Amino acid sequence: MNTFPVSNKDFFENYAEAVLITDKENTPLYGNPSFTKLTGFSADNLILFKTNSFLNPVENILERLQKAFRWETDLTKHDGTVLTVSSTVSKIILPDQSEGRVYTINSAHASPAQLLLKETETLLSEVKSELAETEKKMVKTNEEMDQLTYVVSHDMQEPLRMIVSYIQLMQKSIDQGKGEQVKEFMKFVTDGAERMQSLIADLLQLSRVNRKGDLFTKSDLNEIVSIALTHLASQIRTNGVDVTVDKLPIVNGDPSQIVRLFQNLLDNAIKFTDPERKPEILISVTDQKTDYLFSIKDNGIGIEKKYFDRIFVIFQRLHSRSEYEGTGVGLAVCKKIVERHGGTIWIDSEVGKGSTFYFTIKK
Fold it and tell me: If 0-12 CB within 10 Å is exposed, 13-18 middle and 19+ buried, where does residue 294 land?
């Protein structure tokens, strides 16, 4: 008796031949897309195929031969028309360990060469699609590597040069017996070291989005946003921010990363509030056909349109460190998290009127 992993239906999905799986009593359990195309019977009406004359002569022959066999017979399609087909049937073991049947069915007019050609074309199409996707990912990876190279050669070199410079000045001051200057220079060294530590920590956070992500699970975004707001409670209270959250859906995703996504976007909105008015943030969602569209709207200082793309690039700051804290990695992390969840992220903003960050997550 043959055994076959019929629980893995994906195995049959791209078969050029029509495949029908039944139990021992010939009750239909599964028909692949080629079966539906050939016969007109789909998952919704597959059970009706049990009475089809196609199945009548099978059992006696199968029991007698105890092996797979091929025969030609008539098959009545769902629309009532009769089709002459060539079929092979063999015994299988179903996932529940009971005995079943697997049929492969072809139009009697289709030659083996035609079937082979059709299957080859299907496989070639799949290979081309996979190659195109791989090439796309490689281009994106190369772009990210270029950005990382720039960061290492510029952003991380600057605080390192400052540390080395002030250590040299400290050494000179020690040699000259100027203890007070050593204390002053030490503050700059400490500041540079802390900046380096922040840059490295943020780079690690960015690199872990794809490498260290958790498995996707059903995630209630109402709970997730609540966690993000708890992490930011002190900043919200200090800045007197009013945060309004609409009813949010349950999505399939990495809960810890989605918390980070909302936390970074909320932190960004809180950081760039306008001192001339009371800070307000609104989190809302629109249910679209294949995904959810989320928006986080603030009434902060806003940014110019020419900077819309730049803000999602690692360590690309629009303000000096003396004006606003941070390394410029938060929004780059948001972008990678959204992309890992099959979505896109963008901003709409006007200087002096606030910003709205939009992102999508696939259903």
Answer: buried
Q: How far is C-alpha 25 from the chain's CA centre?
A: 42
Mean per-residue pLDDT over the chain, rounded? 80
Q: What is the pLDDT of residues 100-150, one digit of tens each?
A: 888 888 876 555 555 555 666 666 777 777 777 767 766 665 666 555 555
The span from the CA of 269 to the CA of 357, in Å, is 9
- In the chain, the amino acid numbered 75 is L
Token digits of residue 164: 């080395």
The one-letter code for the residue type at 109 is: H
Q: Can you give the three-state secondary structure of the chain, one letter per residue?
A: CCCCCCCCCHHHHCCCCEEEEEECCCCEEEECHHHHHHHCCCCCCHHHHHHCHHHCCHHHHHHHHCCCEEEEEEEECCCCCEEEEEEEEEEEECCCCCEEEEEEEEECCCCHHHHHHHHHHHHHHHHHHHHHHHHHHHHHHHHHHHHHHHHHHHHCHHHHHHHHHHHHHHHHHHHCCCHHHHHHHHHHHHHHHHHHHHHHHHHHHHHHHHHCCCCCEEEEHHHHHHHHHHHCHHHHHHHCCEEEECCCCEEEECHHHHHHHHHHHHHHHHHCCCCCCCCEEEEEEEECCCEEEEEEEECCCCCCHHHCCHHHCCCCCCCCCCCCCCCCCHHHHHHHHHHHCCCCEEEEEECCCEEEEEEEEEC
pTM across the whole model: 0.49
Token pair, residue 111, equals 């030659």
CA dist 343 and 307 (Å) reads 21
Distance CA 48, CA 69 (A): 24
Q: Mean pLDDT throughout 71-78?
A: 86
What Cα–Cα distance (Å) separates residue 150 from each residue in 15, 143, 157, 302? 48, 11, 10, 27
